[in-house]
Design goal:
The complex is a heterodimer of chains A (641) and B (652).
Chain A (H helix, E strand, L loop, with lengths): L1 H14 L6 H11 L3 H7 L3 H30 L3 E8 L3 E2 L2 E6 L5 H23 L14 H6 L2 E5 L7 E4 L24 E9 L4 E6 L3 H17 L4 H7 L3 H4 E6 L2 E3 L4 E6 L3 E6 L9 E2 L8 E6 L15 E6 L7 H4 L1 E3 L3 E13 L8 E2 L20 H17 L23 H9 L2 H10 L2 E2 L1 E13 L6 H13 L11 E20 L3 H16 L3 H34 L10 H9 L11 H6 L16 H4 L2 H14 L1
Helix pairs in contact in A: 2-3, 2-16, 3-4, 4-15, 5-7, 11-12, 11-13, 16-20
Chain B lengths: L2 H12 L10 H11 L3 H8 L3 H27 L4 E9 L2 E2 L2 E6 L5 H23 L25 H5 L2 E5 L2 E7 L5 E3 L3 E4 L13 E7 L6 E6 L2 H17 L4 H7 L3 H4 E6 L2 E2 L5 E6 L3 E6 L9 E2 L8 E6 L15 E6 L12 E3 L3 E13 L8 E2 L17 H17 L23 H13 L5 H4 L2 E2 L1 E13 L6 H11 L13 E20 L3 H16 L3 H35 L27 H5 L30 H7 L3
Parallel strand pairs in B: 7-9, 18-22, 19-20
Antiparallel strand pairs in B: 1-22, 2-14, 3-13, 3-16, 4-5, 4-8, 5-6, 8-9, 10-11, 10-15, 12-13, 15-22, 16-17, 18-21
Helix pairs in contact in B: 2-3, 2-15, 3-4, 4-14, 5-7, 10-11
The chains are: A alpha+beta (641), B alpha+beta (652).
């Protein structure tokens, strides 16, 4: 009951608006509002009134339009960037070092023996007897060969290309213009291609090459991949270059370091790689000064004479700078360091920090990417390179049933090899050039929000100099092999200096271009500019609208009431008596109202009026005013109940 | 009545013309100050005391001044830009890659053209430095240059004699060819000494260039004979080559099959057909990969060296021109497809017997053109004709400008740049003194006297590939043997000899990752932002708005002007009336106030009666009853509609 009472009271309060008609309300609003235009509408002459009315409308619509623009701009989630450049103490980048050759030839020779003999025979067949030194009388293991053979394609007659197996002298195609056996073809007549077959040789494709060099290199790499995929990981690591053989000297700042400061990681392309300052187990090392003296100095031995001859033709060290706890994609982003040279690398850390959703489509840690990160086995952070490679491996497993040797394996899967998956090479080469696969991966993977690049300034000089060569090699050989003879050579030795430049960071940081403060101040500015308004004006306007609604309700109720009353009671017909009439009726007895009109008025309140007493003070006319309202009030109460 | 007039009359009736309410300026001002929406003015009128009023006037004026100042700042900084840097990971278009051999033409092919020049160069070397036999390590096949034309007149040394100047005595010079000392009456221009002050401690070497009549000569000296002889040789070389036709030159240079031994892009084999020929005057035949042949631009969707371009180049050092080029290798330019490769200006040199791996990062930049900065989208707003078949760049514009000036001043075009329409390359036969003219012009160009630097604007958008170059030994020791033999087999059609590793260079060009950075300039301000900033300023200082501005215009211009006009009109009318009728009868004074003794009108608030301005009660008063105290009847507005009724009933 109490609640109802308060509700009613509140309703009554609300009803007491600034007027009882629309016009009054509007006039009151225009007169009292703080916005600048409306006031002028009511206090001017008719011409200016019209002008001000139009102006006010115009300004209102302008404000609305501009507000719309601002809100739209705000919802675009634009960013502004701030750039800072300077020097500060920073964590030294993680440095990954690999040898260009993945394995020591002396240790993998037993695995590659058959393949190498075959390769030499292939070269012999291509080059012809006078150019090749090998005599192909040895028994060759042709099982590898028959799986994916290299063929000559004689395209002299473009409509009937002649396909000729390198080791067969009979022809698969038409027998026209056959070259002499033993010297099958020369370069300008034939192209070397690789035959890739699937499904037990039912469908075959030829992978064409414009030069024989590419053909034999690709063929060898494919075969070697097949062989290494079957070897367990521990053996592969043992066949690679051990850290103590690779890293001869290490100096970080003034502190000496050695191969134990490097974390080993096995890379399928480059064998054993070693990462300095990876920050996986201990804290990352900072560098507080620019310049060579405060950076990392390394002397490496590549051992070029022990390279796998057909697998890698480029000699040197491969190195890469990357962030702590990130996987080194050294094949993509690494650089070479040349043997017999001192390579100095000045580093500038180029960092880009982005805001995530809704400003840009980047991911903080890769958790919202629909692809399983296969590199998470290494405990590394998310990167888009990792995502794309994981995506490729996923496709590979789906299409070919086995994982590619170059990428990590998901749980319970196997690397591809010829024995278990005979048509994998065919499947892989189709997938590799498939653009659809790449585009799906690019689409599925998101960039990470923090992107760090290491800008390098590379310079080189000959090292060691001729004068110092002798003693340096003596010392290094003594240290590594405890031998008094020189076991190193200029062809394998690499010196590296990695250091921060004078300006070591450049950070580009995103921040929201349009924040809520910006939006409000611009909205306020626009409203103020056109109309001199503020939030309070908006509240005023809202109040007026509430009043408006109330007046409408009141009017509607009154209308309904009057219609009902008209039907029920005839005496409520007609307008209520005017004050003047009532005044006359109560005060002046000598004065008789006009008999023609007042009929209903006189009869209107017969039971309420006492018989006129002379000298009575005039009634409190103010109370009379409430008469029509009383009716309504009771009605609205009825409505409320 | 005409309908037009009818409407006019109607408008007049409905919207009567009324002037400003205030009768004079002072009242108008007062009215304005009291009623305006701006905050300061009201305080001026309302506050009491002279000091306060003065203070408020001061404050208001300061606020107005501040508004003007701030708004001026806002407007003047309207055309500023904000820079945004965005990174996209996406499939990237591979750039066009132009590969040139550093040596332009096979020496064996051009030798017949350059025989005279070579002989004279050797002769000059002999006279000054005292050695004659230059034996190339590589070139042993032809030493037949020696004494074939001993008796012929040296034409090149006569045209531009090489000389050595002794220290401190620039007037005397020793002629290279004759060895005689002779007097030189010419301006001595020390090449490079304009920018670097070199103290010539030893003999300097230079050559003399004369205009048509030999009186006006200039001598260009160099600190080292190497530079002097190379420069001198190059001048004559250009002279000779300018007279050779383009087809002949293309034939003398390297073919694509010769230069490119193998090619591999994105895991797929490619060959010479994927390269387009581009003939450069100073570098001979260059080949451009991915130059929008077949209207498709190759793109990369994986980063890393195996998905980029891998080529092995054949660089035959035996065919090198000993005087023109002194380094061995190839030049690589990475550029946009529609861009002209400036081989001589930019480019990375690659070495033989090495694998050069070039990792790229793509950065795109967009600038806003006029009125934000002085950059240009295309040729439309640069008054230079494009002589290159490529899109706009600053370099193209500068070169075009120089070439145009060259044609204008010297009458012929410089050899290392394309030919403008209707001009010829410079050579001795037609333009005997072009070298002098060229040097003069070039010096003026370097000193920015030609106006090219001010005419040419930078381009608004450009792509930039940041390169990370690293070298490795290639082929490795153990793979050298088989690799070279199979490469020899591959090239057996073009080259008949066995390849050496110093004849080959491997080049890898690839995207390190597919991150593309775009640096974009955006307008920092928009119109709406400017307006809202101005609005903020107006609101902050004075709570003013456009409405106030309109008010000010209305009050200070229209109303006050009309008041003044009316005032003047009245004055003029009064003056006219006084002149016409100096004695005008005074109009009877209008009755003031109501003659109702019983009714006292309150000053402060209007009563019912006063509000109605009732006429005085009629003389016949009703006796007995006092008039009602109408004050009590002061009605509120709600009753105003009923007043007419009261009025009608009252007189009874």
């Amino acid at each position: 009951m109490h609640v109802k009472k308060y509700l009613l009271k509140g309703l009554h309060r609300l009803q007491k608006g600034p007027g009882y008609t629309y016009k009054e309300l509007l006039v009151w609003y225009c007169d009292n509002t703080n916005t600048h235009g409306p006031k002028r509408i009511i206090c001017e002459g008719p011409k200016k009134k019209a002008m001000w009315f139009v102006l006010t409308l115009l300004f209102t619509s302008l404000v609305c339009w501009q507000w719309g623009l601002f809100i739209k701009t705000y919802l675009n989630w634009e960013v502004s960037v701030s750039l800072s450049i300077g020097f500060k103490t920073m964590d030294f980048p993680a440095v990954t070092i690999c040898n260009a050759s993945p394995f020591q030839y002396s240790k993998v020779q037993h695995l590659l023996k058959d393949l190498d003999e075959l390769m030499e025979a292939v070269l012999g067949r291509i080059l012809g007897p006078e150019l090749s030194q090998v005599n192909d009388t040895r028994a060759l293991n042709l099982s590898i060969w028959h799986h994916t053979p290299l063929v000559f394609i004689n395209e002299q007659n473009p409509h009937h290309p002649v396909v000729l197996d390198l080791f067969e002298d009979n022809f698969n195609g038409s027998a026209s213009n056959s070259p002499a056996p033993g010297r099958p073809c020369s370069a300008h007549r034939c192209k070397v291609a690789m035959r890739l077959c699937s499904h037990n040789g039912t469908t075959c494709t030829f992978r064409n090459f414009s030069s024989a060099t590419q053909a034999v290199t690709e063929w060898y790499t494919l075969q070697a991949t097949n062989i290494f995929a079957q070897v367990p990981n521990q053996e592969l690591v043992a066949m690679g270059y051990p850290a103590e053989r690779l890293i001869l000297a290490c100096l970080f700042g003034a502190e000496p370091c050695n191969y134990r400061n490097f974390t080993p990681i096995f890379h399928p392309d480059y064998g054993n790689c070693y990462i300095f300052n990876w920050g996986m187990t201990e804290k990352a090392l900072p560098s507080a000064n620019p310049g060579t003296e405060f950076g990392l100095k390394l002397i490496l031995d590549m051992g070029q004479e022990d390279y796998v001859p057909f697998l890698t033709s480029t000699a040197g060290a491969r190195l890469m700078l990357h962030e702590q706890r990130s996987y080194p994609f050294i094949k993509e982003e690494g650089i070479y360091a040349m043997a017999g040279m001192e390579t100095s690398i000045g580093v500038l850390v180029d960092k880009l920090q982005r805001k995530g959703e809704p400003y840009s489509q980047c991911t903080k840690n890769g958790s919202d990417v629909p692809i399983q990160n296969l590199y998470s086995n290494y405990n590394t952070t998310y990167s888009i390179q990792a995502c794309i490679r994981s995506c490729f491996q996923e496709h590979m497993i789906r299409e070919c049933g086995c994982g590619h040797y170059l990428y990590p394996l998901p749980h319970k899967r196997k690397y591809c090899n010829n024995q278990e998956f005979p048509d994998w090479a065919h499947c892989y080469s189709a997938l590799r050039i498939s653009l659809a696969q790449r585009e799906t991966c690019i689409y599925a993977c998101k960039e990470s929000c923090n992107d760090t690049q290491y800008k390098m300034t590379i310079s080189m000089a000959v090292w060691p100099s001729e004068a110092s060569e002798d003693w340096i090699f003596h010392v290094l050989s003594q240290e590594r092999d405890q031998s008094s003879n020189i076991t190193l050579s200029r062809k394998g030795i690499v010196k590296l200096n990695i250091y921060f430049q004078e300006f070591n960071y450049r950070t580009i940081e995103e921040s929201a271009a349009n924040n809520i403060v910006w939006l409000l101040s611009n909205l306020g500015g626009q409203f103020g500019f056109w109309m001199g308004g503020s939030v309070l004006c908006l509240i005023e306007f809202g109040e007026i609208i509430i009043d408006f609604v109330w007046i409408t309700i009141i009017k509607l109720v009154a209308l309904a009431k009057s219609v009902r009353q008209k039907r029920a009671q005839a005496r409520y017909e007609g307008p209520p008596p005017t004050v003047a009439e009532l005044v006359e009726a109560h005060t002046n007895f000598g004065f008789q109202p006009d008999l023609a009109t007042p009929g209903p008025d006189v009869e209107a309140y017969p039971h309420e009026q006492n018989p006129p007493i002379p000298g009575t003070p005039p009634p409190n006319y103010d109370s009379l005013r409430l008469q029509p309202l009383d009716v309504i009030e009771s009605d609205s109460e009825g409505d409320a109940i | 009545m005409a309908p037009g007039e009818k409407i006019k009359a109607k408008i007049k009736k409905n919207l009567p013309v009324t002037g400003p309410q205030a009768p004079n300026i002072k009242e108008l001002m007062q009215w304005y100050c009291l009623n305006t929406n701006t905050h300061g003015c009201r305080r001026i009128v309302v506050s009491r005391g002279r000091l306060r009023r003065l203070l408020w006037i001061l404050f208001t004026l300061t606020a107005v001044a501040l508004i003007f100042w701030q708004c001026a700042l806002l407007i003047s900084s309207f055309y500023t830009v904000s820079v945004s840097i965005k990174v996209h990971f996406q499939k990237l278009d591979f750039p066009a890659v132009t590969i040139c051999n550093i040596n332009p033409y096979k020496y064996s092919a051009v030798r017949h053209l350059l025989a005279d020049l070579e002989q004279e160069t050797r002769a000059a070397l002999k006279t000054l430095y005292g050695f004659s036999e230059i034996t190339s390590r590589k070139r042993r096949e032809a030493q037949s240059w020696s004494s074939v034309r001993k008796g012929t007149d040296p034409k090149f040394l006569n045209l531009a004699p090489l000389m050595a100047f002794e220290k401190g005595d620039t007037g005397k010079a020793r002629d290279f060819f004759t060895g005689r000392k002779r007097k030189v009456n010419a301006r001595i221009i020390h090449k490079a000494s304009d920018v670097m002050h070199i103290h010539n401690s030893k003999e300097v070497v230079g050559f003399q260039l004369c205009s048509n009549d030999t009186s006006d000569c200039a001598v260009y000296t160099f600190s080292s004979g190497v530079n002097a002889i190379q420069e001198w040789y190059k001048l004559h070389y250009m002279n000779i080559m300018a007279q050779v036709s383009q087809e002949k030159k293309i034939n003398m240079s390297y073919s694509a099959d010769e230069l490119l031994v193998t090619c591999f892009f994105d895991g797929v084999s490619c060959d010479a057909r994927n390269f387009t020929l581009f003939h450069h005057p100073m570098y001979g035949n260059c080949y451009t990969f991915n130059n929008r042949q077949n209207e498709t631009i190759l793109s990369t969707s994986m980063g890393g060296s195996e998905f980029g371009l891998q080529v092995i180049l054949y660089i035959n050092e035996e065919e090198y021109n000993p005087f023109l080029v002194s380094s061995t290798g190839a030049k690589v330019i990475i550029h946009r497809q529609d861009e002209y490769p400036f081989v001589e200006d930019v480019g990375t040199e690659i070495e033989t017997a090495m694998a050069t791996s070039i990792g790229m990062h793509l950065t795109e930049s967009f600038k806003l053109s006029d009125p934000y900065s002085q950059c240009t989208e295309d040729w439309s707003d640069v008054q230079i004709t494009n002589i290159y078949n490529a899109t706009y760049s600053l370099q193209i514009c500068l070169h075009s400008c120089f070439q145009a000036k060259m044609v204008e001043n010297c009458g012929c075009a410089q050899y290392s740049q394309p030919l403008p329409r209707g001009a010829d390359y410079c050579n001795y036969q037609q333009h005997p003194n072009w070298m002098y003219c060229y040097y003069q012009l070039h010096q003026a160009f370097v000193r920015e006297e030609l106006g090219c630097q001010s005419v040419c604007k930078e381009a608004c958008s450009f792509k930039e590939w940041t390169l990370t170059t690293s070298l490795a030994q290639w082929p490795s020791e153990v793979s050298e043997k088989w690799l070279l033999s199979i490469l020899t087999w591959d090239q057996s059609q073009q080259i008949k000899k066995k390849l050496n590793k110093t004849d080959l260079a491997k080049l890898l060009i690839f995207y390190k990752d597919l991150n593309q950075r775009s640096i974009m300039e955006n307008p920092a301000n928009s119109i709406e932002q400017l307006l809202s900033n101005i609005g903020g300023q107006l609101g902050l200082w004075m709570s003013c708005s456009v409405v106030c501005v309109i008010e000010i215009i209305e009050v200070f211009f229209i109303d006050s002007l009309s008041i003044i006009a009316r005032h003047q009109w009245h004055k003029a009318k009064g003056w006219w009336a006084r002149r016409r009728a100096p004695a005008c009868p005074e109009a009877p004074r209008a009755p003031q106030g109501r003659d109702n003794p019983s009714l006292d009108i309150d000053d402060d608030l209007p009563t019912f009666t006063s509000a109605l301005s009732l006429p005085p009660a009629p003389g016949s008063q009703v006796p007995g009853t006092p008039p009602p105290r109408y004050n009590t009847l002061r009605l509120e507005r709600a009753f105003s509609s009923q007043l007419t009724d009261t009025q009608t009933t009252f007189p009874h």
